[in-house]
Q: What sequence folds into this?
């Protein structure tokens, strides 16, 4: 086994837990090799190595073949990981070269073959599967010819991936060509950074691992306000400093993947001053470039405006996010949005539903899945004073027990229903606009039915009146009512008799 392979074995061992199969062969005829122990190390994706060890006491050819086959069975059909052939294009600037050297060291240590050039993109990219271009200051410039080469590279084989390094607003001479290439590859239109930022940004999966991080603070990166048809790898209010395109998401380069970070320091000088998590983010980026996912990135909600609304619903909320195109549902907690409209891959306009007072996660269901929960998706429902607009029926006996439907607004989260000075025997909140209550026993007279929520108690009005009456007055007809009923029956009988006689005369005639 050559020295290069030995280095690969040692380096991979650092990142994966080995598994062992020991097959000991003894007393075999016609040994093919001297008596010794043979170690075969097979690296495989995504998580580890499998070491096959044979203490050979005269192994035959058949035993050696069986040994290898058993090792492959142990691997269980896993895709064997192979050292990648990587191109690093540094240009001539000191920081760009330094970034290239950092990448060269890390990627070589991981067992890859790395070629570093500083005179622009070589004439042929055949054989490479990954490209890191660190020319953050455009020295030499990112030419139209190189863009064509990179586009062809992305289309050459599934999983071919490019990393492009941009910078802050002082280097838009570089950022402009990068964004031109993104459009050429079918990634949409992205404006050059409008401002330089150095605050914390939320990191998006898969860049949150394998080195576990949730945020990164760059030293001074360029903030782009849109990720085009891709997604932000890290974001803050108003945009992000890193974007990515999985395999199958670049319209003109469906086989390849692309990552852009508008900052040089997270590679060239990391750790940099007050910057945080630059190194683990870089290593996670290297992992992504080596094995980019296929399909849309995970759906995320990155902000709400406004983030509060009344319990009656009806608040029009702008939802900012990632990979929102094709959304099929928007939920405020457990309640569906009253309506929603996808306005772009990063924005949805939704109307909040009626909901009880509290704070809820706003989630979006899209082709990338259900959005991940985060502090950025929280919507707070505030209390409103309830209003009673109707009572049905509006009368009942003093003994209570009448089932009453109360209509109005602001009923969600109701804590009490009262008929005058007495609490309802029971009540159920059916919706934000309806309550079913059972009247209590109460003295004769009209009272106001009041609903109480965290927002207060409904004000009295003519619409909330309920009249209590004596049971006899409610259930027993008066003498005059009996008399009218008897008179009606008598008149009906006379009329029916006359009609019968008239019919008999018609028959005789």
A:
């Amino acid at each position: 086994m050559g020295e290069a392979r030995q280095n690969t074995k040692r380096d991979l061992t650092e990142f994966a837990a080995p598994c062992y199969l020991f097959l000991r062969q003894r007393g075999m005829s016609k040994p093919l090799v001297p008596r010794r122990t043979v170690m075969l190390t097979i690296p495989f994706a995504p998580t580890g190595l499998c070491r096959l060890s044979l203490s050979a006491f005269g192994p035959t050819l058949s035993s050696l073949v069986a040994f290898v086959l058993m090792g492959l069975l142990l691997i269980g059909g896993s895709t064997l990981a192979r050292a990648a052939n990587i191109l690093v294009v540094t240009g001539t600037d000191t920081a760009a070269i330094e970034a290239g050297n950092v990448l060269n060291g890390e990627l070589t240590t991981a067992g890859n073959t790395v070629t570093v050039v500083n005179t622009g993109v070589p004439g042929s990219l055949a054989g490479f599967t990954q490209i890191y271009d660190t020319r953050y200051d455009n020295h030499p410039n990112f030419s139209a010819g190189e863009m064509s080469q990179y586009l062809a590279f992305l289309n050459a084989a599934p999983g071919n991936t490019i990393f492009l390094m941009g910078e802050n607003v002082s280097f838009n001479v570089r950022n402009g060509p990068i964004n031109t290439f993104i459009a050429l590859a079918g990634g949409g239109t992205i404006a050059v950074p409008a401002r330089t930022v150095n605050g914390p940004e939320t990191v998006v999966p898969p860049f949150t691992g394998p080195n576990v991080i949730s945020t990164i603070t760059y030293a001074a990166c360029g903030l782009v306000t849109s990720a085009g048809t891709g997604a932000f790898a890290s974001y803050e209010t108003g945009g992000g400093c890193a974007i990515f395109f999985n395999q199958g998401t670049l319209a003109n380069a469906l086989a390849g993947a692309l990552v852009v970070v508008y900052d040089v320091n997270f590679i060239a000088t990391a750790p940099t001053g007050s910057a945080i998590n630059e190194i683990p983010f870089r290593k996670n980026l290297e992992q992504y470039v080596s094995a980019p996912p296929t399909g849309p990135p995970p759906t995320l909600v990155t902000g709400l405006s406004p983030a509060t609304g009344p319990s009656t619903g009806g608040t029009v909320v702008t939802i900012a996010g990632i990979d929102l195109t094709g959304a099929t549902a928007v939920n405020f907690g457990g309640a569906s949005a009253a309506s929603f409209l996808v306005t772009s891959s990063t924005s949805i306009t939704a109307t909040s539903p009626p909901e009880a007072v509290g704070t809820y996660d706003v989630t979006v269901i899209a082709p990338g899945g259900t959005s991940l929960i985060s502090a950025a998706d929280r919507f707070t429902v505030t209390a409103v004073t309830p209003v009673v607009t109707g009572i049905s029926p509006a009368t009942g006996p003093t003994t209570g027990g009448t089932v009453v439907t109360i209509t109005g607004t602001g009923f969600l989260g109701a804590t009490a229903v009262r008929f005058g000075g007495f609490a309802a025997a029971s009540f159920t909140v059916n919706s934000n606009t309806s309550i079913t209550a059972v009247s209590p026993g109460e003295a004769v007279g009209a009272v106001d039915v009041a609903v109480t929520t965290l927002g207060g108690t409904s004000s009295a009005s003519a619409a909330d009146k309920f009249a209590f009456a004596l049971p006899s007055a409610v259930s027993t007809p008066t003498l005059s009512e009996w008399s009218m009923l008897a008179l009606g029956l008598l008149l009906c009988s006379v009329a029916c008799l006359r009609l019968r006689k008239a019919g008999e005369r018609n028959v005789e005639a």
The two ends are 128 Å apart (CA to CA).
